């Protein structure tokens, strides 16, 4: 959770106008508990702290609580006290790099948007002083995971046979068997005078004016093997050559996901990540050719001059998603270069500690990417009670960054209104002279380990095939012998009439052989999912 370290010394950018809001239709709706929820034509407001945390209010036990929205995890936790809540006497802990969220699992009625679920399970973190960051100062008192149900540790702990322990979104979708099981959200950008986006999240409906998202291609969620389904994230394939660098050329990187089609990468949508995480070679290709680029060792990010305009884009389902140059090079973190001069952060960081050792994804697209899209995530058959939305989960996206007006914004904000994007100092150095960021020994080892570990489903399959081949062989031998024996016996029967049956014992071995595989891979996945989570929030 390196980015929170960045947030700690982040400063408000003074002098910029706040984004003006065009979607606010201030019809305050009353929710079921009589509490006023900030509703904007069927959607819930999302507020933005320093472009680093996105927050909405939920109502829990009748009390309004601001929570960080995190599409990358699946549990709800809050700090402080919750009225009208019931202690299940079970406890768990969720690992984040800011510290552990640990405590008892409680239940209370929850309202979000205009939906109320009875007895929602959540983790009550009684003591938040263990966090390395002051979450209250950043405007939130908890975190709501919007990820797949299988990722919920609270649900696992409750071990509920019914759906009582399910994650919040699953509980909401379970209210109505015929609902469309999707959420949509858009995130605003602080310090961008030209943006007209208002942060908002909707459930089973789309934001007025953005209905065309429903016509966008449905991009299937790439699923992970059942055995490691607690690592399942909202992840999809990029198109082939789907990441376009600042020179307008595709940045070609090989996927670490073994089943990934040639030239395509697996990208996770994670609103809990401030800085998107990309393969190191990709980050180097974006920032290493900038004049004055420096690798910041302490924060493990590239820094570049704040006036550098870098155009990059991603391609999903044939649609290009341009990234606003204010998101590619961020002034939000108050960084300085080796001479102590203010510099900006290269937002698309090399993926290190969140690297997937099981080879389940290549890229984590955090807030720096998500500000550029209106995103729809359909949980579909991840909600088991549905009778209508029963297909496979998918994502639909609309680009919301206009390249021309983004250019104007950048010139106004970073160049004092004087367009110097054509200056010689802005030109990229030739690729052959580009800098590379340093690779640690630990990272090299991880890359090697991933090459082997990511192939575990195939190794497991291979072992099983070998195992069944052996069993098959034994049975064949056994049957042969029996047939021979039977033949002999048949002959013998003519004289005597008694055939001895041997017990068939060979199948017993199946359970014995399976269990060590199961347990060893399950424990791997625990370790790795913790790794991912710990870099996360
Ligand atoms: C949450 O509620 C508080 C108090 O009612 C309000 O001040 C704040 O703006 C709300 N935040 C959001 C994101 O709606
Ligand atoms: C929430 O509001 C929408 C639109 O106003 C309505 O269609 C839907 O039925 C409501 N859902 C619930 C659970 O009240
Ligand atoms: C809360 O946690 C902090 C740090 O982990 C610890 O120093 C403190 O004693 C705890 N407070 C309570 C009341 O348990
Ligand atoms: C359930 O969802 C469907 C489809 O969105 C809607 O038509 C229906 O009104 C909803 N039922 C309730 C009780 O909210
Ligand atoms: C928002 O701004 C973009 C240009 O940046 C424009 O194309 C779009 O129509 C605007 N949307 C609304 C709803 O005003
Ligand atoms: C909400 O959005 C719909 C679709 O654009 C529009 O027809 C309706 O008038 C809006 N409702 C309110 C209360 O603004
Ligand atoms: C980025 O794209 C805009 C719009 O196409 C263009 O005007 C600008 O020159 C580009 N900037 C760079 C540095 O390529």
UniProtKB/TrEMBL annotation:
* BP GO annotations: proteolysis
Fetch the Pfam families from UniProt: Asp
Does the keyword field hold Lipid biosynthesis? no
Matching entries from PROSITE patterns are given as: ASP_PROTEASE, PEPTIDASE_A1
Kindly indicate where the leader peptide sits in this chain.
1-15
Q: Which GO terms describe its molecular function?
A: aspartic-type endopeptidase activity
| Protein name (record) | Acid protease
Organism of this sequence: Schizopora paradoxa
């Amino acid at each position: 959770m390196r980015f929170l370290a960045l947030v700690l010394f982040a400063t408000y950018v003074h002098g910029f106008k706040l984004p003006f809001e065009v979607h606010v239709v201030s019809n305050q709706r009353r929710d079921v508990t009589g509490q006023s929820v900030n509703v904007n034509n069927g959607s819930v407001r999302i507020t933005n702290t320093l472009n680093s945390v996105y927050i909405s209010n939920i109502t829990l036990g009748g009390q309004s609580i601001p929570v960080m929205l995190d599409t990358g995890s699946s549990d709800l936790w809050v700090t402080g006290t919750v009225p009208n809540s019931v202690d299940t006497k079970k406890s768990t802990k969720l690992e984040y790099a800011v510290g552990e969220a640990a405590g008892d699992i409680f239940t209370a009625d929850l309202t979000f948007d205009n939906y109320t679920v009875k007895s929602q399970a959540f983790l009550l973190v009684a003591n938040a002083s263990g966090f390395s960051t002051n979450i209250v100062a950043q405007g939130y008192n908890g975190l709501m995971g919007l990820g797949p149900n299988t990722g919920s540790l609270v649900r696992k702990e409750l071990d509920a046979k019914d759906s009582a322990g399910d994650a919040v979104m699953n509980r909401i979708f379970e209210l109505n068997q015929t609902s469309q099981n999707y959420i949509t959200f858009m995130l605003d950008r602080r310090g961008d005078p030209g943006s007209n986006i208002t942060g908002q999240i909707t459930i089973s409906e789309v934001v007025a004016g953005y209905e065309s998202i429903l016509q966008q291609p449905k991009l299937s969620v790439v699923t992970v093997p059942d055995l490691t389904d607690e690592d399942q994230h909202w992840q999809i394939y990029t198109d082939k050559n789907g990441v376009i660098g600042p020179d307008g050329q595709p940045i070609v990187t090989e996927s670490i996901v073994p089943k990934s089609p040639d030239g395509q990468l697996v990208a996770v949508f994670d609103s809990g990540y401030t800085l998107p995480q990309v393969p190191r070679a990709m980050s180097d290709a974006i920032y290493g050719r900038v004049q004055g680029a420096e690798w910041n060792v302490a924060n493990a990010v590239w820094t570049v001059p704040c006036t550098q305009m870098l155009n990059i884009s991603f391609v999903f389902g044939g649609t290009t998603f341009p990234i606003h140059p204010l998101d590619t090079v961020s002034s939000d973190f108050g960084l300085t270069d080796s001479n102590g001069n203010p510099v900006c952060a290269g937002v698309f960081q090399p993926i290190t500690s969140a690297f997937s050792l099981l080879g389940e994804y290549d890229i984590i697209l955090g807030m720096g990417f998500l500000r550029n899209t209106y995103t729809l995530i359909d949980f579909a058959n991840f909600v088991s009670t549905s009778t209508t939305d029963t297909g496979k989960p998918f994502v639909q996206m609309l680009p919301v960054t206009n390249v021309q007006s983004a250019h104007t914004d950048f010139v106004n904000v970073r160049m004092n209104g004087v367009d110097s994007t054509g200056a010689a100092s802005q030109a990229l150095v030739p690729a052959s002279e580009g800098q590379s960021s340093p690779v640690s020994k630990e990272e090299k080892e991880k890359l090697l380990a991933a090459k082997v570990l990511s192939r575990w489903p195939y190794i497991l399959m291979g072992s099983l095939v070998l195992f069944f081949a052996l069993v098959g062989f034994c049975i064949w031998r056994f049957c042969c012998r029996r047939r021979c024996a039977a033949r002999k016996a048949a002959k013998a029967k003519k004289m005597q009439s008694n055939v001895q049956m041997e017990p068939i014992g060979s199948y017993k071995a199946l359970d014995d052989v399976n269990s060590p595989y199961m347990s060893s891979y399950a424990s791997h996945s625990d370790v790795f999912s913790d790794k991912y989570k710990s870099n996360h929030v």
